[in-house]
Amino acid sequence: MQPAHRPLPAFGRRLKRLRRSLGMKQMALADLMNVDQTTVSRWESAAILPNRETQQAAFEKLSACRKDDGALKRLVESSSDPVHLVEETSHICLAYSRSRAVEWRSGTGDLLGQSLWKFATEEIQQAEHELIDAGWWDIHVPEPKLFRTSGASYAEMTILPGAILWERLYLADGTPVRLASGARRAA
Q1: Which of 169, 184, 166, 182 is CA-nearest to residue 73?
Q2: DSSP class of residue 115?
Q3: Residues 52-88: tens digit of each pLDDT
Q4: What residue stretches are annotated with the HTH cro/C1-type domain (predicted)?
Q5: What is d(CA 37, CA 42) in angstroms, rounded to the nearest whole number?
Q6: CB crowding 5-20: b at 16 or more within 10 Å, else e
C-alpha cells in the first residue's frame, strides 16, 4: 500500500498555535513564506486554504525555528512502552521507542523527521477531525484522546490494530507535541 498525501485538518488553527508557541509574528512567517501578512492571517482564519505543498513548507519553516528538546526525546526513545512523539501541527516524527519500532517493523530512526500523517488509518484521520470539535486547538492542555484503530501496512511501516492514546506535551521552547502511546497486537 502506498501512503496517501492528504492535507491535515484544521491547518489554520495548527499554524497559528505553532507560530504563537514560537513567539513569531504573522509578518515574520509571511517573510519566511514569501507572502504578505494578510495571506498568513487568511490562512490562520481558514479564509483561504493553501495547497498541501505550501502547508508542508510553512510547517517545515516554523519547525526549523525551534530548538530540539533532547531530554524528552531520550525519555521516549528509552521507554520500554511502544510510544512515539510527533510535532503536533505537522505530525513530523521527533522520537520513538524501540518497542514502537518493532511494532512498526521499521528501523530505529528510519522515520525521524518524516510526517507520519501520510500513514494515518481512517480511524486516526477521524480522531484527528474530532479534535476540532473538542476544541483541541483552542485549549492549552486538552484532555487526552483515546481511540481504537485498524491496521495498515506500508513499505516504510506497519500500523497494528488497537488502542491509541494522544496526549499533548510542550517542548522547552513552547512547541506543542503529541505523545502517542498504546500497545497494539499483530492480528
Answers
A1: 169
A2: B
A3: 889 988 988 887 766 667 778 889 999 999 999 999 9
A4: 15-54
A5: 9
A6: eeebebbbbbbbbbbe
